[in-house]
Specification:
Blueprint lengths: L1 E7 L3 H17 L7 E7 L14 E5 L2 H7 L8 H13 L5 E4 L3 E3 L14 E10 H9 L5 H11 L3 E3 L2 E3 L6 E10 L7 H15 L4 H13 L1 E4 L4 E3 L3 H17 L2 H4 L2 H30 L2 H14 L4 H11 L5
Organism: Pedobacter heparinus (strain ATCC 13125 / DSM 2366 / CIP 104194 / JCM 7457 / NBRC 12017 / NCIMB 9290 / NRRL B-14731 / HIM 762-3)
Protein name: Nucleotide-diphospho-sugar transferase domain-containing protein
Length: 327
């Protein structure tokens, strides 16, 4: 049995995101319905009942005290992700798990996640960048201090992991943690994920410290496999605003019977995937125009048309509207 783990708390926007995550999983796994359970950690289980009635969901209620406890002494919000993964391993020993962020939805059947995981394999969403490359990436967002502090810290520090001294370096990769698939054997390493998360955050304040803890530890202990062909992760602010409005319209304007129509939801995931990709590319193109990064912008324009080749005229009009040549 597989455990799909989702964490959702704090606001109705977050709850609605989790609803669509679960509906998308349900829609794409018709042939595997007896192979997994959904564990939803939330402070408002009552919000979900009517929307997810036909879906088998195990609710784990989180009190305000528990949510605070999960952050530990560092007060790091995303440490809660580590806590719910650890709790799932404790409550379901010997079972693999797949943690999925609530700002995601499945875009194809996750059949590769349904087999018994080998001890030496793991899954994350997508490999993003080396730690060295992260300096340039975060410089674009005026956040270069976080990767710089982190790289300095790990370059000066050795870590004791399961009796072995480990050194991390700037050539190691950060993997996006929108999805984390772990074998039951990895449960013994969760204490070190907690330790690394706390140390990384305390010494860098980087808001992806839990992602880095999983990324670096899994690179040393397993072979990480990507899942971006299975899952759309709309983590950017613009893309979240876009999908949040689509989900709100969907929930307010669709019957419960329709919400639980697998084919209907599958079709939506395909359409929304295209919308997320388009919006992300337009955001990058607009930024490249502002920075006069013409080569980068040209590459993204090509990707934009390849994403939706049948919509050439509409996309051309959008590009004209965002291009303002500097005299």
């Amino acid at each position: 049995m597989k455990n799909f783990v989702i964490l959702s708390y704090g606001s109705e926007t977050e709850y609605r995101r989790a609803i669509f995550t679960i509906l998308s999983l349900f829609s794409w796994t018709e042939d595997y319905s007896d192979k997994y359970r959904v564990l939803l950690y939330t402070d408002r289980p009552d919000f979900f009942f009517s929307y997810l009635a036909p879906v088998s969901v195990n609710y784990v209620t989180l009190s305000s005290e528990k949510l605070k406890e999960m952050m530990g002494e560092t007060g790091f919000i995303h440490r809660r992700k580590v806590a719910v993964i650890d709790s799932t391993f404790e409550n379901y020993p010997g079972e693999d798990l797949i943690f999925v962020d609530s700002d995601t939805f499945f875009i194809s059947c996750p059949s590769i996640l349904m087999h018994a995981f080998k001890r030496e394999e793991s899954y994350m969403h997508v490999r993003e960048f080396t730690l060295k490359e992260s300096i340039g990436v975060f410089a674009n967002y005026q956040m270069v201090e976080f990767p710089k502090s982190f790289i300095q810290y790990i370059s000066e520090t050795e870590f004791l992991i399961a009796g072995t001294i480990e050194k991390f370096n700037q050539d190691d990769y950060s993997w996006n943690s929108g999805l984390i698939g772990l074998s039951s054997d990895f449960a013994k390493y969760m204490q070190y994920v907690f330790k690394l998360t706390d140390l990384f955050y305390s010494n860098s304040k980087w808001f992806i410290s839990e992602q880095l803890a999983f990324s670096l530890l899994l690179q040393r202990q397993t072979t990480i496999k990507p899942t971006n062909e299975l899952l759309m992760h709309y983590w950017g602010k613009r893309q979240k605003d876009l999908i949040d409005q689509l989900i709100l319209n969907l929930i307010n304007g669709t019957s419960l019977q329709k919400l639980n129509d697998r084919q209907f939801i599958r079709n939506l995931t395909k359409d929304w995937k295209s919308k997320v990709i388009e919006d992300s590319l337009l955001e990058q193109i607009s930024a490249s125009f502002s920075d006069r990064s013409w080569y980068f912008g040209f590459k993204k324009i090509i990707q934009l048309f390849l994403n939706n080749p049948k919509d050439f005229l509409r996309l051309s009009k959008i590009l004209k509207s965002i291009y303002h040549p500097i005299p």
